[in-house]
Amino acid sequence: MSLGLSLQDNIIPVAALCALCSSLKYSGYHVLALLLIAVACALADDTYTTKFDNIDIDAILKSDRLLKNYVNCLLDKGNCTPDGKELKEHLPDALETECSKCSEKQKTGTDKVIRFLVNKKPETWEQLKKKYDPNGEYTKRYEDEAQKRNLKL
Asked: Which SUPFAM superfamilies has this protein been placed in (predicted)?
């Protein structure tokens, strides 16, 4: 269960929990169990869910209908599938944090989708940039990395 807090947000509560356990004369095992639970809760928000990692990205990119549905979801022009909703929810954070909470599979998929949109659907890419990067902040931030990957943003 995630409490929506980062590990840093939990340092003080964990220290307080340790002091409380000590004052209540809990055994070392009880303290360890409570600490593990606290750390697990804190770390739960440090990665995005991987439950949609097995979505067939190639099938979506090959289907104009499926791709359009995902793009419309991201642009607030249509309904979202559960995985589209998850993507839409986390996309701003992923852009801000350089996908630091992404799994390797998510990073690979992101690269594939961006490459496809830039090369095959530039008008769609521009629409998404207009919504998610209106000031060009992320485009500028990721320019060097994109160049290394032979990708023009």
From this structure: Chemosensory protein Csp2
Which pTM value belongs to this model? 0.67
C-alpha distances out from residue 109 to 41, 53, 57, Å: 27, 9, 7
- CA end-to-end distance (rounded Å), the chain: 38
* pLDDT above 90 for 1: no
- Cα distance between residue 83 and residue 32, in whole Å: 36
Contact 85, 73 (CB under 8 A): yes
- Helix or strand run (H / E) with residue 149: none
CATH of 57-149, one of 3.40.50.720, 2.130.10.10, 2.40.50.140, 1.10.2080.10: 1.10.2080.10
Q: What residue ranges do the domains of the chain occupy? A: 14-43, 57-149
In angstroms, how far is CA 1 from the centroid of its own chain? Answer: 17
Average pLDDT rounded to a whole number, residues 86-93: 93
Given a contact cutoff of 8 angstroms between Cβ atoms, the answer to whether 89 and 55 are in contact is: no
Report the alpha-carbon distance of residue 129 to residue 85 in Å, rounded.
18
Question: pLDDT, tens digit, for every residue of 108-120?
Answer: 999 899 999 999 9
